[in-house]
Amino acid sequence: MSTKFVYDFKEGNKEMKYLLGGKGSNLAEMTNIGLPVPPGFTITTEACNDYYASEKSIKAEIREEIKSHLETLEKNLGKTLGSDKNPLLVSVRSGAVFSMPGMMDTILNLGLNDISVIGLTEATKNERFAYDSYRRFIQMFSDVAMEVPKYKFESVLDRIKEEKGYAQDTDLTTEDLKAIVEEFKAIYKKEIGNPFPQDPKEQLLLAIEAVFRSWNNNRAIVYRKLNDIDNNLGTAVNIQSMVFGNMGDTSGTGVAFTRNPATGENKLFGEYLINAQGEDVVAGIRTPQDISTLGTVMPDVFKQFVEITHTLEGHYRDMQDIEFTIENERLFILQTRNGKRTAQAAINVVVDLVDAGIIDEKEAIMRIEPNQLDQLLHPKFEDAAINSSAAIAKGLPASPGAASGKIYFNADDAVEAAGRGEKVILVRLETSPEDIEGMVKAEGILTARGGMTSHAAVVARGMGKCCVAGCGELNVDEINKEVSAKGLVLNEGDYISIDGSTGKVYVGEIKKTEVSLSGNFGRLMGWVDKYKQMAVRTNADNPRDSRAAVEFGAEGIGLCRTEHMFFEEDRIEAVREMILSDSVEEREKALERIIPMQRRDFVEIFEVMDGKPVNIRLLDPPLHEFLPQDDETIKELAKNMGRSVSDIKKKIVDLHEFNPMLGHRGCRLAVTFPEICVMQAKAIMQGAIEATKKGIKVTPEIMVPLVGEVNELKLLRGIIVETVEEVIKQEGVAVDYTVGTMIEIPRACLTSDEIAEVADFYSFGTNDLTQMTYGYSRDDAGKFLGEYEDKGILEKDPFQVLDQTGVGKLVKMAAELGRGVKPDLKLGICGEHGGEPSSVEFCYNLGLNYVSCSPFRVPIARLAAAQASIKNPRK
Amino acid sequence: MSTKFVYDFKEGNKEMKYLLGGKGSNLAEMTNIGLPVPPGFTITTEACNDYYASEKSIKAEIREEIKSHLETLEKNLGKTLGSDKNPLLVSVRSGAVFSMPGMMDTILNLGLNDISVIGLTEATKNERFAYDSYRRFIQMFSDVAMEVPKYKFESVLDRIKEEKGYAQDTDLTTEDLKAIVEEFKAIYKKEIGNPFPQDPKEQLLLAIEAVFRSWNNNRAIVYRKLNDIDNNLGTAVNIQSMVFGNMGDTSGTGVAFTRNPATGENKLFGEYLINAQGEDVVAGIRTPQDISTLGTVMPDVFKQFVEITHTLEGHYRDMQDIEFTIENERLFILQTRNGKRTAQAAINVVVDLVDAGIIDEKEAIMRIEPNQLDQLLHPKFEDAAINSSAAIAKGLPASPGAASGKIYFNADDAVEAAGRGEKVILVRLETSPEDIEGMVKAEGILTARGGMTSHAAVVARGMGKCCVAGCGELNVDEINKEVSAKGLVLNEGDYISIDGSTGKVYVGEIKKTEVSLSGNFGRLMGWVDKYKQMAVRTNADNPRDSRAAVEFGAEGIGLCRTEHMFFEEDRIEAVREMILSDSVEEREKALERIIPMQRRDFVEIFEVMDGKPVNIRLLDPPLHEFLPQDDETIKELAKNMGRSVSDIKKKIVDLHEFNPMLGHRGCRLAVTFPEICVMQAKAIMQGAIEATKKGIKVTPEIMVPLVGEVNELKLLRGIIVETVEEVIKQEGVAVDYTVGTMIEIPRACLTSDEIAEVADFYSFGTNDLTQMTYGYSRDDAGKFLGEYEDKGILEKDPFQVLDQTGVGKLVKMAAELGRGVKPDLKLGICGEHGGEPSSVEFCYNLGLNYVSCSPFRVPIARLAAAQASIKNPRK
Q1: Is A586 exposed, middle or buried (0-12, 13-18, 19+ CB in 10 A)?
Q2: Do B775 and A708 touch (CB under 8 A)?
Q3: B573-607: pLDDT as tens digits
Q4: Residue-wise pLDDT tens digits, B305-336
Q5: Cβ–Cβ of A768/B775 closer than 8 Å?
Q6: Catalytic residue among B48, B69, B378, B455
Q7: Which of A109, A161, A461, B410 has an alpha carbon 20 to 30 Å from A51's alpha carbon atom?
């Protein structure tokens, strides 16, 4: 039997992708599940290869097969190519095995010529439409199939519009269009040497050859090279009959979802237009009608359509987004695909489908895009309210949510205003740790500088607070307390609204919808916990965040940063005195004042976490971050300490660093000022014992940051253990504890076999690890990272999505070397990546015990962890 | 046959280290080559293990062996332990297999008691000496062997000295000492419960047991743990007879070198004292005599000694440093070891030994400590001149050499003064790239801040210019142009002298010796080149440094930094205009002005290098480094550019970075400002073609800095190749060139298999790689690195000695991954480590093609490379 080169849509199915291409096999699949797809056929990829093997010619055998399928098509539809009465028109599309956006465009309405244009006029009762279609076809065919430059045709249109004083293409009359068709045919003849082909079969063969040739055009070759696609696959060609929704009042076109894409409600949702083509719906000239009214207009068609929607949901086992056309009361399905939906709808749909027995729990879990959950966890502006307000600026969507309030330009003013009961938006050039109190009290934070991982962004996400960062269009003048954009000047106390999910900034107050978590969300998360095999913890520095995180399902604290506690109003002065001390004794005296406050912090957190593990990191930032910058505060500090202002200023200058990120911070502080480490270890253990006495089971994990050399950890572990044991002895209550380290320096990963010997656990600090592995300062990289993404140098911002190739290799090395010497070494991650789905999967596959992320990302991480387990279950 | 536990020195040799310990086997070796070593015997490490196996007792069998060896010793020497006539006294020393500084101290003069002290008096005719020895012995024995606290004895001495009004121990009379002996014995009895042992054999057994116990004291256990020494090795005990050089005019003591340790001259060099103990020579109370006069005083002894020195040189095949004692005309050799010597002497000695056929060329090469060569390559202050000048401060020895000159506090003043013919020392808080011209003109550089790898240090080493950096004791006031230290204030124009090899700073001018390279240096370096299998290049940015490096044997340029060229007076303004431009066009206009100057730089360097490879790195530092900081210059710049001062200042603020080290620099500049890269590529190729036309073979290596992601190099390689090919086409002259990258970002190492695909070569920039792998900013790490070394966290400064464990692992990974995809990938290193011997060896062992270092370190690197080849020859 000789090879078959052409398949009717009825002859294929979705498994035949390599022979029929992606598009062809899908059209076949839809046809075979009984959908009224406009009929047609597919010329195989083998035919394409044969074309190249036959010195770029379609051999007679294949031409014969095409002819025969075309005849069948005409017979089935009762239409004829080139006819002057309701003529058959077809579309011609390429269809490779893998989607290749660089390839040939579609040719529509093939079959139009000087005669069939009359037939189309008659069938649609619309001469203007027929001639408009004809001139478009000539232009498209010439450009796409024959490579006649498009501008040659465009310039004719432009000339005529100018001559006639028309503003738009739609102003062209039927007579204009007839004249244009003649001019277009003349251009074709001049460029190609032959008249525009009037024989539709010749049009078809030329179009098919053009598709075959497009397989080897430059764009396609480059695309295949970049995407590693085999050059020998070839492309298929799809020939499909055109259907028309503009053939009078028994025709129409529309779009429908099988369920409500906003809520997930199981009720048909969509709209249609009578006597219209698809473009008309998009153009918005006429207002479409609700799909439910179709039942009255064309009851039979509607009934058929409703049945089809059930068939489609059943077949694809998901909510469908369907395009349809009715041609003379005959329904055609043009396309169906899984419908885009809100997070709310997505969850409701999968829970419904599970209840209906269509999918199982695991599939339900796999169906939800983890990042989408973010929508559910934050308030949003009401759509209608947004539509009526124009954004005055757009920054980075740094922390999701929506917030309105009065502008204040510094933390003190913000705290004061909030104290008066005002809603506050804190607007700053950029934030620093000194602004923490103001950030806590504000509804949202807006900064002019800084990226997605700037201080403002990181802290706001940690608090689950709305933040727009790096909004460069704003001119923020902190001194004169005004902010301007696009010529508009706003002053302290003026209302603005910011959307942390879009980065947009609006003037005035905008209404918000508070989204409550529905019961289905809870059911889904229940399944998630059933299949998830890796724990999800949270990064939280205070009882408030800890409580929020527990509500979101956090199973412990993966990172409690102690420095934020240092900034609180009642203790920053003691901290500053400690830093400015000249002797160990003075420093210890100041530290003694801090101990009770730190202890209280820990007790409260232990209480909230109620037996769940709590990982506490010792002081990390460089000391100069705690010192004041403004003269006022310096003066006051000097007075309180009985020192001269110049003395304090000198100390501040001495502490200045060229590259603080790589400076005197992390465990380096504890090495040079062991008394700080002693104070913290003491406060942690005293807190743990106090909580234990209250009946709470506590096992603090004490974490030493920024270790790069095992001797650092050896020394500090010794100091911590000695301190902690002394507290235990004094108090007479034994509490279990572990001592480990944050792995955030490349050298720690490289020497993990040494470090694991003295660590009970590792927590990967992938923020800093990314900074050092790439050599990017996240405070400065904004200056070039945008251009890096634009130029395709970086696919994704490595501070948002863990770079598995480079940074991930270090994480893997650290995990393997560490577990090599200590198989039960506990491993976690507490960088921003701990809440990013692809990074969560990577961590799961490396065998990490947990990921930790900001409270509002906990549900996302839980879902991502469950998906990872389902893909690749751990034994 | 039962185990033998005690060996006479005559019965052992240097191979028996595990049985006799290090010290014991050496004493045996010296005895057996015929040296008159004071006789004695060694109790084996097996005896120590037996002691522990026998519940901490020395079993009878071993006691018997000790007794028998002791009797033989007495017989051979004709002396008896405890005798009242010329008694035998012995020393007892521990001797482990590996040297363990934490173990038991030595006990001298064992055997003294109430009777033998009279014998010693008679033998030495010195009663005071005898009783002084006795009281010292009681104290030492009680402390070392019986753990009676030292202070108990010291307090007696203090009391008596106070009572008698003595200033020093030497004021004590014989009668005083006799009384002290009685008091000491009383203390012993009180503390131990028994009287001080009068039986010398009991003394000996107690001392031996004490040595055995010391094997398991805390210090020793910790030391073994830290140094990975097996706990089961045990320690040996050495019993050696004491000899006395203070027995009258036929006795004496001295020290001699077989050759002159300062010059290497083959002539006995040393001094001695008649009727004296070793301490007397050290105490300096009497002036020793030149060794040559011993021939007149004791001709036979001298003849024997000269013969022995020949024997020793022959046996150890190196210059020896020998300690000897003459007791009653009998010569004893107490110790011999390879003599310490100057670099000059070291070279002359090995060349002599090769000429004498004693060692071969390879051994000569292995004998020279590469770092020592540094002494030969820089001028030094005359020893006498230094001794009479007290240093006023001490900083880091940042770049070797010696310099005197008048103080100037900024680059402009320095340049001006040098123009007037003055010798200048540039004194700054710290230097920045703006100071380059001043540094070039200065004799030496002195800074108050910054470490061994600060800007001043790195640049000065590159220039081979003397530099003392980080001299924190100095208060430098650049505004008022004065510097003070220890209360002394110096002003502009005052003379100071700085020693870059010691870090010392002196007031006034000090005489220097210019060391010329002798013929033997040339001969040694000739052998070095014969055995060396890895090339040594230099880091040089201008023709002057390149020329110096070629004279020192550089085989090419491994790193030519183009940014230093940007700072030269005639072009910095064009560079600044380029940076401050608002559009690509403006920037290109400014760059056009720079091209001819850059081209000229390259032509000159190509000429000096005359066919040797030249690696040119594209612009690396962040742009803000080129901008002025002072108002004056900013004002001038604004005027010249026709811009407002505030405009320029705003731009400077915009370019500010939090962590410039991790900021917008290196290839990131070329990605965002491709026109800079185009300008540089053009200048390089135009320069190469101009040189080629002059008949010089040029193959420029164009190096892209700071690549961390292959796509950066892909993009820039494309731009460079396109630019270069266009120049070649325009000029009609083809020049070979290669394009590669500096590997200095951890991620580059981790993804080296990707990067190697688009690189012709790698040059490891281990300075930055160390910064990022450790997370240390070299500008800031000074604040804690000192403490890190003090606390034993870091063994060595990783910016000086390549960290093989961590950073080296990345280098290895990069080399292996890179060569895995491109076996002929050319690999080099251009960080500071390229001139550090252990790092050079590491690079050689990784298979690198070359190392590159500052010109003055080239001979050191050549020698280190030769030593590496000799240890482990490449096929």
Answers
A1: middle
A2: yes
A3: 889 988 988 888 889 999 999 999 999 999 999 99
A4: 999 999 999 999 999 999 999 998 999 998 88
A5: yes
A6: B455
A7: A109
